[in-house]
């Protein structure tokens, strides 16, 4: 979901750079305590009051800003790209649960820290490089949509650099590809050198019929572009070499969605946007995907950067 917040009346949010984050707080969040089990697994157990109901109180979390700096200057709001987090036990995230319970008319306030910070910015992570590859999974798109919108705005103002920007964004299904229309329009305008490569990891018939939609997870899309084996193929080969669970590895590979690029972005053209000595791969999102993307970048001799939470 996309959330927009306005500052306290009579004030403005601090100025910021695309890619930075701010801390938000709600005061009616489910409270938990950290518990380490005998097998060293970390769990967060809900605290209960005397009546057995979940205790509620303040929870703070930092979120990357999805609006571009120029948008905030023009409109006053900050925008966020957030999902309702659900853990392995089916329990929703403490702050996101509260955010998704908000009523826009009756319960529409939250606290924010009057400081925007972070060094996940193009001037810090991509300085001096001519090919910038942004790889976002899920809501990891947030800092990148801010960057792309700001670059497009600056190009409209006559400020255009000589850098090739390529954005890979993957979500499970098309409906979860927020900002798809806006990014497609920015790419079509070509006010700056920008290629948008969307993909879905669980393609439906709509996606199979759409030539401009990629298929497969972001890490495997990048592997395909750079002519590396799929992660699952690599895992199978490793299992065969080391005596691992080959049957399991084969089953995982059989279920893997093979990467397919959008028809208007052939592999050879994307490779020209990723010359190793000139390229930085910057990623944000799923930790497992980010680690594999790091492997891919380093295997091809590219600089690698990621946003950690």
Could you please describe the fold and organization of this structure?
α7 (218-225) packs parallel to α11 (287-299) and α8 runs antiparallel to α9 (246-255). β12, α11 (287-299) and β13 form a beta-alpha-beta unit. The chain has two domains: 2-117, Elongation Factor Tu (Ef-tu), domain 3; 122-306, 3-Layer(aba) Sandwich (Rossmann fold), CATH 3.40.50.80. It is α/β, with parallel strands linked by helices. The model has no long low-confidence stretch (mean pLDDT 93). It has helices at 69-75, 94-101, 122-125, 142-156, 180-189, 205-208, 218-225, 231-242, 246-255, 267-271, 287-299, and strands spanning 2-5, 21-30, 32-36, 42-46, 56-64, 78-81, 111-117, 131-137, 164-171, 194-200, 214-215, 279-284, 303-306. 31% of the residues lie in helices and 25% in strands. It has a six-stranded parallel sheet, sandwiched between helices. The protein has a three-stranded antiparallel sheet with strand order 5-2-7. Strands 1-6 form a two-stranded antiparallel sheet.
